[in-house]
Amino acid sequence: MQGPKQKFWPKLLIKIILTAGILFHTNHVVQAIELFKGQLVYVPVYSHVYHGDLERKFLLTGIVSIRNTDPDHAITITLADYYDSDGKVIKNYLQKPVTLNPMASTRFVVKESDTKGGSGANFLVRWKAEAKVNEPIMEGVMIGTAGQQGISFTSRGKAIKNKE
Questions:
Q1: How far apart are CA 103 and CA 67, in angstroms?
Q2: For residue 101, which of 136, 63, 140 has the smallest C-alpha distance?
Q3: C-alpha gyration radius of the chain
Q4: 47-88 pLDDT per residue, tens
Q5: What are the φ/ψ torsions at residue 117 (nearest 5 degrees)?
Q6: How far apart are alpha carbons 100 and 151 in whole angstroms?
C-alpha cells in the first residue's frame, strides 16, 4: 500500500517534466525569423586561386547564385556589380532591375577566361522588396578544371547594409 509521500513524488515528477517540455518548446517557438525590406550584400567570387610553390594560377568560373527564400513575396535585384581585387568596378551585370518571384533564383556568371577580378574579386548585390521578407541566400560558386584536376567551392554572401 502506498502512503501520501509515495503518491506525491510521481505527480511532482510529471509536473516538472511537463513544465520543462513547455519551457523548452516555448523557447524554440519564440525565436523569430528576421525579415528585411532590402540589403546590400558582399559576395566573394574568385576568378582564380593559386597552387604550388610557384603560385601558379588555377582559373575558375565564378557564379553568383541569388535565391529568393520567401514563399510569399517577390524581391527585386537592383544592383549586381563585379569588383576586382583593388576594389574597382569591372562590370555592371544589370542593365535593368530583375524581379525574383517567391522561391525563384537567378545567377550571374564570370567566365573562366575573365581573369581581371583576381583572387580577391567580389560582387556587391543590392535587393529590395515591397514588404519585409525572408533574407535571400547569395552564394559564390567557383569551379574549374585543368587536365584531370578539378576544384570547386562556395562562399557565402554577407549583408553589409540593411535598407532602412
A1: 7
A2: 136
A3: 25
A4: 999 988 999 999 999 999 999 999 999 999 999 999 999 999
A5: -70, -40
A6: 30
